[in-house]
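Troubleshooting: if your tokenizer reports a length mismatch, compare against these two reference records.
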Amino acid sequence: MAEIVGIEDFNKALAELKRDVQKRVVKSALRAAAKPIMAASKAGSKVLKKPTTYRLPGLMRDAIIAPNSRIASRKGMIGIFIKPRSKKGVTRGVKSPLDPFYYRFVAGGFHAVGSTRVKGGRLTRKTNLAAKVESGSARFIPGDDYIGKAFRSHSTEGLHQFELTIKKRIDKANRRK
């Protein structure tokens, strides 16, 4: 596992900045760290071979971004996450050709059950799906966790980018005082 060398120095220099500047400095460093991971996940994502009425080739690959994490900000932390997301103003849903919602099925896999509806709540549905797979009336299509693979293979490169960027940004922000 990779780790940041000299984190105490970074924390001390970061503490000297104002709170809003701290957020901007850390977010820019996080985005710089996400770039190699995003590039690797774009390279590893699957592309539709021929377009259909509701799917465009390369949409899932081109929609990979690193937005701010609402969950982290609610807890008072700073964070981002990497995933395909539709652009602002795009109609969301199954019939929208500009919404890459289906990435979760490509990445995580799904149960192919056909047109039948699998009933039950969260726990009951899971056992009902398992019974259908066992009987042969449904099958599980495994996913390809391309974002996770990119993170695992490029996390040290991202950490190195984070270190370089945060040092530059802290020095630049401290010079402005």
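Reference record two:
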Amino acid sequence: MKITSVEPFILHVPLNTESISDSTHTITHWGVVGAKIVADNGLAGYGFTGTHAHLPSDRLVTSCISESYALLLLGEDARDGDRLWLKLARYPAVQWVGRAGVTQIALAAIDIALWDLRAKAAGLPLWKLLGGATIERLEAYNTDIGWLSIPKDKLVEGSRRAIEHDGFRRLKLKVGHADPAIDIERIEAVRKAVGASVSIAIDGNGKWDLPTCRRFCARAEPLDIFWFEEPMWYDDIASHAALARSTSIPIALGEQLYTAEAFSAFIGAGAVQYVQPDVTRLAGITEYIQVAHTAHSHRLPVAAHVGDMGQVHVHLSYWHPATSMLEYIPWIKDCFVEPIRVDGGHYVRPEMPGAGCTLTESAVSSYARPC
């Protein structure tokens, strides 16, 4: 299965709502930047990463794909997954200029496309190609009701609807106001509305410092918080470890970590209890597997971060034994991809061959931007 072409693409997809905000970002579109890899058997694999739909930085990713990685792949056998990943990840010239960021997320798109290609060639869904599902039902927690831009009354209304009508038993709320007391009031209102049996996680998106987090956690602990995600600056291992020692609220993080080594450092320091790898930030499925195995060896649960379409993470989460739940964010226009099915607060296991990057032809033509 020789690789005959590697074609980058940039798609800017409108959200299902006017805009969304967390403590550090506000967006109206999501960028899906990736690669289409074609083999000599006529099959094509699609891979992608996620961005804020900022065309200049998106072009850095596609340039890395077309100018640095594509030439290393042409003529290679797409079935040699581990060897090709190492060839690209350890290519001296690219490694010299970046071991995270642009080069890493460009490799993520390539690696996902290669897995997609291999799964299609085998005629199997990714979870089965990897070795089969280890869980029958994958629970979904709803983040889409919890954006910081949603007023408190609408936040309560959406939380109640997610529980009473949609069947969710887990919610995640964004936090990160300049005055943390506002966030406490919002959590209190949701807790009162949904009751004690519902899990409520929170996500700070790296906004606060250690003293602020300690004061906030002291007030939040009685509200039975399931986890506190990204409370502080993403790379600050020491502060996360200190917070983990000072609060009963578990720490979750990983969406802004780009390497297996970064995860190992946080795990080794006792700075994380819920490990959240993302295939679009790590160097694809291959490195995600490394991180998930490391977490499992430390008996830490894995809850993949889903900041994009989610298809690949659904497959990985059904397969990996450390995972029992996954984020649900139906924020991208439904016409963009084959929809992921959620029934009664649980994902329905996908059966179609491939890694799940099921871009529709109409989406590619409608949302494409020049590379």
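Descriptive notes for reference record two:
- The first strand starts at residue 3 and ends at 14.
- The two ends are 27 Å apart (CA to CA).
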